[in-house]
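Whiteboard transcription, Tuesday session. T.W. wrote the C-alpha coordinates on the left side:
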Protein backbone atom coordinates (compact mmCIF):
# COMPACT_ATOMS: atom_id res chain seq x y z
CA UNK A 1 0.00 0.00 0.00
CA UNK A 2 1.10 3.59 -0.59
CA UNK A 3 2.62 5.42 2.38
CA UNK A 4 1.34 8.84 3.50
CA UNK A 5 2.99 10.95 6.20
CA UNK A 6 0.82 13.59 7.86
CA UNK A 7 2.90 16.33 9.48
CA UNK A 8 1.39 18.64 12.09
CA UNK A 9 2.27 22.28 12.55
CA UNK A 10 4.06 24.09 15.37
CA UNK A 11 2.16 23.58 18.66
CA UNK A 12 -0.05 21.10 16.80
CA UNK A 13 -0.63 17.40 17.32
CA UNK A 14 -1.22 14.35 15.16
CA UNK A 15 -4.75 14.15 16.62
CA UNK A 16 -5.76 16.98 14.28
CA UNK A 17 -5.70 14.48 11.42
CA UNK A 18 -8.37 12.22 12.97
CA UNK A 19 -11.21 13.60 10.78
CA UNK A 20 -9.26 12.62 7.65
CA UNK A 21 -7.84 9.25 8.63
CA UNK A 22 -10.79 6.98 7.88
CA UNK A 23 -11.09 8.16 4.27
CA UNK A 24 -7.35 8.39 3.62
CA UNK A 25 -6.75 4.91 5.04
CA UNK A 26 -8.65 3.51 2.04
CA UNK A 27 -5.69 4.52 -0.11
CA UNK A 28 -2.67 4.76 2.20
CA UNK A 29 -0.84 3.34 5.13
CA UNK A 30 -0.90 6.48 7.28
CA UNK A 31 1.99 7.67 9.45
CA UNK A 32 1.55 10.51 11.96
CA UNK A 33 4.88 11.25 13.66
CA UNK A 34 5.13 13.86 16.39
CA UNK A 35 7.89 16.45 16.29
CA UNK A 36 9.93 16.58 19.49
CA UNK A 37 8.40 18.66 22.26
CA UNK A 38 4.88 17.93 21.02
CA UNK A 39 2.45 15.47 22.57
CA UNK A 40 4.22 13.09 24.93
CA UNK A 41 7.69 13.69 23.45
CA UNK A 42 10.45 15.53 25.27
CA UNK A 43 11.52 19.07 24.42
CA UNK A 44 15.03 18.81 22.93
CA UNK A 45 17.68 20.12 25.30
CA UNK A 46 19.58 21.88 22.52
CA UNK A 47 16.52 23.80 21.36
CA UNK A 48 13.98 23.58 18.55
CA UNK A 49 15.03 24.40 15.00
CA UNK A 50 13.77 23.71 11.49
CA UNK A 51 16.95 21.73 10.85
CA UNK A 52 16.29 19.54 13.87
CA UNK A 53 12.73 18.79 12.76
CA UNK A 54 13.90 18.14 9.20
CA UNK A 55 16.38 15.63 10.59
CA UNK A 56 13.62 14.02 12.67
CA UNK A 57 11.56 13.53 9.51
CA UNK A 58 14.59 11.99 7.78
CA UNK A 59 15.13 9.63 10.72
CA UNK A 60 11.46 8.62 10.72
CA UNK A 61 11.46 7.82 6.98
CA UNK A 62 14.65 5.78 7.34
CA UNK A 63 13.46 3.95 10.45
CA UNK A 64 10.17 2.98 8.79
CA UNK A 65 12.04 2.18 5.56
CA UNK A 66 9.60 4.27 3.51
CA UNK A 67 10.06 4.69 -0.22
CA UNK A 68 8.23 6.89 -2.71
CA UNK A 69 6.39 8.49 0.21
CA UNK A 70 3.47 10.92 -0.05
CA UNK A 71 3.52 13.83 2.43
CA UNK A 72 0.87 16.27 3.61
CA UNK A 73 2.11 19.01 5.91
CA UNK A 74 0.02 21.61 7.71
CA UNK A 75 1.71 24.96 8.44
CA UNK A 76 5.20 24.19 9.80
CA UNK A 77 4.75 20.55 8.76
CA UNK A 78 4.67 21.65 5.13
CA UNK A 79 7.80 23.75 5.62
CA UNK A 80 9.63 20.75 7.09
CA UNK A 81 8.50 18.52 4.21
CA UNK A 82 9.88 20.96 1.64
CA UNK A 83 13.17 21.34 3.55
CA UNK A 84 13.51 17.56 3.52
CA UNK A 85 12.73 17.47 -0.21
CA UNK A 86 15.67 19.77 -0.87
CA UNK A 87 18.04 17.39 0.92
CA UNK A 88 16.64 14.00 -0.11
CA UNK A 89 14.00 14.12 -2.85
CA UNK A 90 14.66 10.53 -3.94
CA UNK A 91 12.45 9.08 -1.18
CA UNK A 92 9.48 11.40 -1.88
CA UNK A 93 6.65 10.87 -4.36
CA UNK A 94 4.97 14.26 -3.81
CA UNK A 95 4.06 16.88 -1.22
CA UNK A 96 0.94 18.86 -0.35
CA UNK A 97 1.21 21.83 1.99
CA UNK A 98 -1.61 23.79 3.62
CA UNK A 99 -1.18 27.10 5.43
CA UNK A 100 2.60 27.00 5.17
CA UNK A 101 4.27 30.37 5.69
CA UNK A 102 7.09 31.04 3.24
CA UNK A 103 7.84 34.72 3.76
CA UNK A 104 9.85 35.03 6.97
CA UNK A 105 11.58 38.24 8.05
CA UNK A 106 13.22 39.09 11.35
CA UNK A 107 10.61 41.74 12.12
CA UNK A 108 7.68 39.46 11.29
CA UNK A 109 9.17 36.50 13.18
CA UNK A 110 9.72 38.66 16.27
CA UNK A 111 6.12 39.86 16.10
CA UNK A 112 4.80 36.29 15.79
CA UNK A 113 7.04 35.01 18.58
CA UNK A 114 5.80 37.64 21.02
CA UNK A 115 2.32 36.14 20.70
CA UNK A 116 3.64 32.90 22.19
CA UNK A 117 3.86 34.12 25.77
CA UNK A 118 2.41 31.31 27.93
CA UNK A 119 1.31 33.60 30.76
CA UNK A 120 -0.58 35.92 28.42
CA UNK A 121 -2.20 32.98 26.62
CA UNK A 122 -3.27 31.45 29.94
CA UNK A 123 -4.83 34.77 30.97
CA UNK A 124 -6.29 36.01 27.68
CA UNK A 125 -7.07 32.77 25.79
CA UNK A 126 -7.77 30.17 28.48
CA UNK A 127 -9.48 27.76 26.07
CA UNK A 128 -6.37 27.64 23.89
CA UNK A 129 -4.20 27.18 27.00
CA UNK A 130 -6.42 24.25 28.00
CA UNK A 131 -6.08 22.72 24.53
CA UNK A 132 -2.28 23.06 24.65
CA UNK A 133 -2.18 21.40 28.06
CA UNK A 134 -4.40 18.55 26.86
CA UNK A 135 -2.19 17.96 23.82
CA UNK A 136 1.27 18.52 25.29
CA UNK A 137 0.89 18.19 29.05
CA UNK A 138 2.26 20.64 31.59
CA UNK A 139 5.35 21.28 29.46
CA UNK A 140 3.31 23.38 27.01
CA UNK A 141 4.61 26.49 28.79
CA UNK A 142 8.18 25.44 27.93
CA UNK A 143 7.22 24.43 24.38
CA UNK A 144 5.97 27.92 23.48
CA UNK A 145 9.29 29.75 24.00
CA UNK A 146 11.01 26.88 22.14
CA UNK A 147 8.76 27.46 19.12
CA UNK A 148 9.23 31.23 19.48
CA UNK A 149 13.00 30.73 19.28
CA UNK A 150 12.54 28.61 16.15
CA UNK A 151 10.51 31.42 14.56
CA UNK A 152 13.18 34.01 15.34
CA UNK A 153 15.89 31.83 13.77
CA UNK A 154 13.61 31.35 10.75
CA UNK A 155 13.37 35.11 10.37
CA UNK A 156 17.14 35.48 10.44
CA UNK A 157 17.87 32.62 8.07
CA UNK A 158 14.85 31.06 6.30
CA UNK A 159 16.16 27.75 4.89
CA UNK A 160 13.70 27.62 1.99
CA UNK A 161 14.58 31.08 0.70
CA UNK A 162 15.94 30.84 -2.86
CA UNK A 163 15.87 27.01 -2.73
CA UNK A 164 12.32 26.11 -3.76
CA UNK A 165 13.41 25.97 -7.41
CA UNK A 166 15.67 23.01 -6.59
CA UNK A 167 12.79 20.75 -5.45
CA UNK A 168 12.15 18.24 -8.25
CA UNK A 169 9.06 16.47 -6.86
CA UNK A 170 5.41 17.46 -7.51
CA UNK A 171 4.12 19.92 -4.90
CA UNK A 172 0.67 21.37 -4.34
CA UNK A 173 0.64 24.60 -2.33
CA UNK A 174 -2.66 25.28 -0.56
CA UNK A 175 -3.81 28.24 1.49
CA UNK A 176 -7.12 29.34 2.96
CA UNK A 177 -8.55 32.61 1.68
CA UNK A 178 -9.12 33.71 5.30
CA UNK A 179 -5.72 32.64 6.67
CA UNK A 180 -4.53 35.47 8.92
CA UNK A 181 -0.96 34.15 9.14
CA UNK A 182 -0.16 33.19 5.54
CA UNK A 183 -0.81 35.55 2.64
CA UNK A 184 -2.11 34.57 -0.77
CA UNK A 185 0.81 36.50 -2.28
CA UNK A 186 3.55 34.47 -0.55
CA UNK A 187 1.76 31.22 -1.41
CA UNK A 188 1.51 32.22 -5.08
CA UNK A 189 5.18 33.26 -5.09
CA UNK A 190 6.18 29.87 -3.66
CA UNK A 191 4.02 28.12 -6.24
CA UNK A 192 5.73 30.06 -9.03
CA UNK A 193 9.18 29.17 -7.67
CA UNK A 194 8.61 25.40 -7.67
CA UNK A 195 9.41 23.52 -10.90
CA UNK A 196 6.47 21.09 -10.69
CA UNK A 197 3.72 22.76 -8.72
CA UNK A 198 0.00 23.31 -8.41
CA UNK A 199 -1.87 25.91 -6.37
CA UNK A 200 -5.18 25.69 -4.53
CA UNK A 201 -6.96 28.43 -2.57
CA UNK A 202 -9.53 27.05 -0.14
CA UNK A 203 -12.70 29.16 0.15
CA UNK A 204 -13.94 30.28 3.55
CA UNK A 205 -10.91 28.73 5.22
CA UNK A 206 -8.83 29.99 8.16
CA UNK A 207 -5.37 28.87 9.29
CA UNK A 208 -6.13 26.20 11.95
CA UNK A 209 -6.62 22.73 10.50
CA UNK A 210 -9.69 22.16 12.63
CA UNK A 211 -11.30 25.09 10.78
CA UNK A 212 -10.80 23.38 7.40
CA UNK A 213 -13.77 21.53 5.94
CA UNK A 214 -12.61 17.92 5.57
CA UNK A 215 -14.57 17.40 2.35
CA UNK A 216 -12.73 20.27 0.61
CA UNK A 217 -9.30 19.06 1.67
CA UNK A 218 -10.01 15.40 0.94
CA UNK A 219 -11.27 16.25 -2.54
CA UNK A 220 -8.10 18.24 -3.25
CA UNK A 221 -5.98 15.33 -2.02
CA UNK A 222 -7.86 12.86 -4.21
CA UNK A 223 -7.49 15.12 -7.22
CA UNK A 224 -3.77 15.82 -6.77
CA UNK A 225 -2.92 12.22 -5.98
CA UNK A 226 -5.31 10.68 -8.52
CA UNK A 227 -7.13 8.64 -5.89
CA UNK A 228 -10.33 6.90 -6.86
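and on the right, the sequence the group agreed on:
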Amino acid sequence: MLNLILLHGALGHSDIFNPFQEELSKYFTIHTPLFSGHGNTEIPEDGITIDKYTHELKEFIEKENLKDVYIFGHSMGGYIALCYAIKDPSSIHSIMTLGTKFEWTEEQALRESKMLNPDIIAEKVPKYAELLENQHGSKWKQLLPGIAGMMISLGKNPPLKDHLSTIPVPVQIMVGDQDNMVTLEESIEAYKSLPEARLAILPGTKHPLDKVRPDILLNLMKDFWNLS
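Someone added at the bottom: The CA atoms of residues 131 and 137 lie 9 Å apart.
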